[in-house]
Amino acid sequence: MNLFGELAARFSPQVMGYLQEAGRLAAKEGRYCYIVGGLVRDLLLGWENTDIDLVVSGGGITFAEEIAARWGGRVVVFGDFDTAKVLLPAGWAIDVAGSRKEYYPRPGALPQVAAADLREDLWRRDFTINALALSLGPEDLGKVVDPFGGLEDLRRGFIRVLHDGSFRDDPTRLFRAVRFGVRYGFQVEDRTRRLMASAVEGGLVCCVSPQRLGAEMRKILAEEQVLPMLQMLADFGLLRAIHWALGEIDWALLRGVPSSLRALHLPCHGFAYLAGILFHQPLEAATEAAERLALSGAEQRKLRALLANWRFALWCLHWPNLRPSTIYDVLSTLPEEGLALLWAYSGASPIRERLIAYRERLSKVELSITGSDLVALGYRPGPSFGKVLRKVLRAKLDEEVATREDELSLADRMMGQLTKEDP
Ligand code: CTP
Q1: Cys-Cys with 99: which of 50, 121, 277, 286 at CB 3.0–4.6 Å?
Q2: Which domain holds residue 148?
């Protein structure tokens, strides 16, 4: 099989020129150069993918430096894996790795590597569909190398590991199996399924570092079919990786996420699903889960705010005749994902109306005055400024002030009172 035509249809003549030149250069030095991994798979499936991973014999970093020097690019080297990224002037990037085999000192650990031939390089990979290579050599440009039946599995729709030790070597592959299986509508082949079950039973996921687990979960949360992926993770007992004591998942809530995001005109948030998984968990469990996934400080704060405040917000929103400023006060304690989850959880229309009012109107209300206006009125800056400006904002939300002059005179009165109380 030859994929040159498919490759040329996907990339610009300039990029094709680079790729062909890389192949010629390698051949001149007696090396081989192949495109490997996801791009070959997606070329065959007709899926969008423009990430170029090259494998070369005779040293990845030296080859990356050579092509970067020729094309005016910059090289970023990754750790001890003979791997580098070439950053090209037009903003295009290409990953280069030396052809290698890997040895995993213990499950979940990063591998130790040694130079090896193409077959061994493909053998160390996760699934047959990802163990295909496309030659850039001038002699056989575009030819697909398929030593382990990847083409047949792509045709028949199977996710199949190459060897029994695959999940032990790298338990993040459990998550990859789910992601690729659902993304392409492929079945996890029987032996692979059994190996997954025993890897989960053997607790291999515990060996994965928070950074790697978090990275896998982020990829899943960014996928279009995130919900079926989460369901499949749950079926395999893999959601427990997020937290060992994770209780029942509220699937109805998670199913409501896309329509909630649409109704509130919020961008697609993978984070909403993660918060949805942890929605009914005690705050402590959610905090542990956030650490297990190596969430950033900002993400952890967002998750805590959401989980600590949604119940109170829901309780408040049930009351009749709420002032707009109260709705604002309650809902501004929640991140956007929290609004979406409340929408999905509440179902009731008065609550939903208030969520819409907050999103579309109240959250956009801004004061026309600032601290400088208070200085201009002769007040000394201090904590009272924030207090007074917040009160004026509440008055504006409740339509008690309309113009800039109204805001200014209310602020003046309040500042005067405060200064009298606390000279
Ligand atoms: N790979 C692997 N085991 C992993 C991660 C990656 O064997 N745990 C190999 C696979 O051959 C994979 C390639 O490295 O195809 C590139 O990995 P990556 O860029 O993470 O994924 P893609 O397969 O390109 O898929 P995606 O569409 O998700 O980027």
Answers
A1: 121
A2: 4-156
